[in-house]
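Q: Start with the shorter request: fold the first protein.
A: Done. Sequence, then structure:
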Amino acid sequence: MIPTPYLLYLGHSDDPLGIKTSRGLAHFVPELCVGEFRHDDCPLTLGIERLTIEEARARGANTLVLGIANPGGSMGQALVEDALVAIALGMHVAAGLHHRLREVPALVEAARAAGVTLFDVRDAPADLPVGSGIKRAGRRLLTVGTDCSVGKMYTSIALQRAMQAAGLAADFRATGQTGILIAGRGIAVDAVVADFISGAVEVLSPARSDDGWDVIEGQGSLFHPSFAGVSTGLLHGAQPDALVLCHEAGRPHMRGLPHFAVPGLAECLEANLRTARLTNPAVQAVGVCINTSRLGEVEALAFCADAGQRLGLPCTDPVRFGVTPIIEEIARCFAPSPLATTVSA
């Protein structure tokens, strides 16, 4: 386990989507976060106290979380220099970038000298199997998206917590760096060799005999030319009984690809259902979650109402309005699993 509490790193970031790891931690586990660190040229904030690295360490921060992401997951010199300051003060460093901390000699040497640990959250387990497609006991819900960074992790955690509050057995299965830091475990599927993605998800979400739910965090989008392979592997390995489609209202184009339009909700939902049917022909859509942060509240309510009417599904913003309508739809659609009952008996 990564030692807490955390200091959340923003550095020089100017992309609101690029700080989603730090933002997710501040939102879901604020009790584990001492504050945020950002330079003067960073226009972003998590809404928590801004601290220097020295101030954070004095207040008990044990780990600097490099909670930023960029295309390709590279690590710039400024970030390395900030991490070296934290290490010199006796702090561990955690990151989920594709560029691993252990690949930076200066960080490795400094951590060794200071007796602290570098945590590369995106490391995949060894010896993962290929997917089998064999039906597993229990229920699974997978979040899917029209694009990257549209709220699949937020939606997954909100659904899992609401299920538990409603008396259902439910576990969040993290598949990305932010979710792993929040949950304390998981598999970063975009770091898994392609042949083993579906098998990794089968390992992450094994059979369960309590008729409970695994809520599996989605990644990427079937419509994103860069990341559709990861999305496909997740759909096949999850064998989802239920899908929830995630979307950001007002997004002008696919993330990082101004020459690719965001797909329509109906088109995207049908493509995900069609792909999921390979390993679970009975998969159902149970809801739509919209990130309405670009809209005022009246506009947001109208957008959700219109999308829900067009798709015939409950539609909500999980941050603004909660996920109760989707929980009610799940209860309506799914009786206790006969397979799980048989296994329990």
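Q: Next, the second protein, separately.
A: Sequence, then structure:
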Amino acid sequence: MSGSPGKVDVSRTGGVENPPVIILIEPQLGDNIGKAARAMLNCGLVELRLVRPRDGWPNEKAVANASGADIVIENTRIFEREEDALADLNRIYVTTARTRDAVKPVFTPRGLGPEMRANIARNEKVGVMFGPERTGVRNEHVAMADAVVTVPLNPGFTSLNLAQAVLLIGYEWWQAGVEVPDYQMMLNDSFPATRDEVERMFVHMEEELDESGFFRVAEKRPAMMRNIRNIFNRVGITHQEVQTIRGMLVALRGGKHKPRT
């Protein structure tokens, strides 16, 4: 074994003192290790363990492909035996795309995220094990784990590269601990218009449309104006956008008339 765990910098892990450990069994290419390290740090994971890396360690290609995830590379620990890499863990999960003979609980990455969060909240140390790029994990690795993780993908093609697999697990771990709305409006330096500002814009718009002859059929006027209001109310218009639209209305009249309201 080489390397030491060191103290986790919680500023790099989203405030979690004991995030999951990633264990790569017999990784073949330094490039793939580096890309996996980059994916880890994207998701606040900083502890990487390698079991019998084919091309040895340290590895220049791993450093290059980590693209700045130096904390992961520098803290990487090397083991000759799986048992040693897993020895201090309370809970172990293994990733595989294939159905195995063993009777095991099976998680999706989405289900695993909250599971690991709950385990860590109980002060358990958690690890996720990934097999070699070419063959994946073997039956003996599945036997070492408490549960299996399988990614539900196209049944006709479930192959993932190592970094993709690590990112999927890491992403769901990260998402299970953050509260980010599924949708939000990016306002930059602007702010939503007040109802009074929007109403004044509609009055101005209706006056200009009147003078231009837009409302040719009087009976349709109320419905047309409602439709116009719905268009603008649906998008959540900002203060700056109200000012821009009113400026456009003035410009369309040749700039000769200021807004009436």
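Q: Describe the second briefly.
A: The chain has two domains: 10-175, 195-252. The longest strand covers residues 21-25.
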